[in-house]
Amino acid sequence: MGDALSGFLGLNVSVNGRAASVDVGIGPNGTYQREGIPLSLGTNIVSVFAADRLGNSIIKQIQVIRAEPVGPRLLAVAGDLQQAPIRGRLPTPLLVKVTQPDGSPIANQLLNFQVLRSDGRLLPVNATQLATDPTGRPDYSSNGAMFLQLLTDTHGEANVWWTMGMDAGHANNRVSVSGASLAETVYFCASAIRAPGASESISDPETRSEANRSGLAPEPLKVWVSDGNNPVAGIPVTFRSIQGGGTLLPILAADGASPSGAGLRAASRASGSFALAAAGTPAGDWLR
Fold this sequence. Notes:
Strand order of the largest sheet: 8-15-14-10-12
CATH architecture of the largest domain: Sandwich
Distance between the termini: 36 Å
CATH class of the largest domain: Mainly Beta
């Protein structure tokens, strides 16, 4: 979602006309989340509309068929739509239950828990329910593995701890639960929160400043703040001229944000040192 040049500028997404939560990510790696979309029995069309501030837009549609369940049921009991920091464990384990059509539990049902998106890890709450040993898997760590096979207990239940992967975003961590003799597959989504800014990346400031010593540099100076893998917003960044007597001009969008690409630049007075403003912050609060 998004694009490498302008997808982060005012990006908004709606699902069947209902606004979604958006995490712009890096370039085309943005994510969005919108739960609670009603589905009627039969065929449903789910339409997703995305647009950015520069006028780029796209519509994607999928067809979803809702049918009445038959036979044994696989039910998601708890753990969906949680959030935790990247590489952090969700506060509540994922819990599923297998039942007969009359609601009675099915014990010793083999279930497959699998990470479908990001690189999170799964760990059984009760290790005695493991059907296979995951420690030999190449993705195994102290937080578990990306694939687990468990047997349901006497209540027809199985649950696992879920640790988030390295990618931040809305509902961007996903797990499926299925069974060979079950018609249904259950899906869980979780959101990984980026860690506080830990590093900055500067794009060739010295090379660019050499191009024109008497006027504006041909390219703006850019700093990217990340948690080591994901962009972090709201971190104050100060640019200061320390040699040569040059001046600095902020490149700001209409809402006070600082785009890293072309477009929506507002005139501003020069200053020897300034921090880029957060969106909506008056100029007097960031000029130094």
